[in-house]
Amino acid sequence: MNRDEAKQILLLYRPGTADAEDPEVAAALALAKDDPELSRWLAEHNARQTALREKFRQIPVLAGLKEQIISEQAAKSRAASHRNRIVGVAAVAAVLISLLVLAHFFLPFGGNSNGGLASTLDHYKSQMTAATSSGYSMDLLSSDAGKVQAYLAGKQAPADYVLPAGMQKVAMMGCAAKTWQNSKAAMICFRTGKPLPHDQIGDLWLFVVDRTAVKDAPDSSAPQFAKVNGLMTATWTQGGKLYLLSTDGDESDIKKFL
Amino acid sequence: MAQSVDFENLVSSYYGTLYQFALSLTRDEAEACDLTQETFCIWAAKGHQLRDVSKVKTWLFTTLHREFLGSRRRQTRFPHMELEHASAELPAVSPATIYQLDSEQLLEAVGQLDETYRAAIMLFYLQDYSYNEIAEILGIPLGTVKSRLTRGLEKLHHLMTNIQTPPPS
Lengths: 258, 169
Fold this sequence. Notes:
The structure holds two protein chains of two kinds.
Chain A: H1 3-10, H2 23-34, H3 36-57, H4 65-106, H5 121-130, E1 140-141, H6 145-154, E2 171-180, E3 183-191, E4 204-210, E5 224-228, E6 231-238, E7 241-247, H7 251-255
Antiparallel strand pairs in A: 1-2, 2-3, 3-4, 4-7, 5-6, 6-7
Chain B: H1 7-26, H2 29-46, H3 56-71, H4 95-100, H5 103-111, H6 115-126, H7 131-138, H8 142-161
């Protein structure tokens, strides 16, 4: 390395910094120790660099800038915190609305009957036949058809139902008024005569509801048969009412009561 | 994690040098204030993403420089020109002359430098950044940093020799 090459390298050298750790700079600095002219040049260069560094660092900073930055950031944080609270409340509200919507569609009784899965025929059959499983009770225990009809009428449940010919001689055991969506459904319990456990009231159930309460209720008076909740069911419409009959057994068993 | 960096301490530590850097870039006090403030706003929003706390200072200068470039609507980076023929013999400006300059004169001289050189020179003197750190902040190769510094210093010394300074008292 000659003097000119050393000057070229030292041009960007800043005294008091890590620049001296660079091997090339270190070699140039070593050369300057043995070269009086280079040493003088370096001394002048170092003084210039130091002066420049000091001058640059003396550039005045606008008064109040620090306080302005801190206070504006604090204001932004407060605004963000307020925004987050609003978003939180909105999220909770959205969850509640979602739950209400879900309840509207999936809760079995008491909901709105306007549209949705909850008011379909399948759902109606499922809910009504489920009501005949263990634990159900009759609102009125009576074999008197007149009393049963009077009770149901008093509860705003369909009372002017027409029993199929096959049921005329089946023993009536009682009735209950059920709520289906916003409508009342009549549940009439019969006993076919088969041996039953001592705590079972009946084994044949007829449900009657206004046809408009079930979204896809059949138009026909011809019974449709289907197994629902382990029971055989027959469904038909007559006189603006939807009839659902259910019992144990198969299609031939239930047809005996139609 | 950078999350542990206290915002007020951070501002206290770096707002001054960031402002000086911004002022040298923009040559406008209000714009420099905005740029400095915006840099800290970005830190407040995104600083937690920085994993190495020791890189906070570099992150701040890098962000400020990017914001400056963005504010100038520059779609492309500066060309990475390798400047050759930098002279080892800088124009003879004495340390005494430099000491006689006031800040406005110095800023005036720096302001006459092309932006290409200005940022590198300021990082070089304000924070004693190494060439590698300047390269990282400006997003340019190491060789380009050295070229810009050499050429920028040469021009700065030329500009300072032309400044009329009051005679020493």
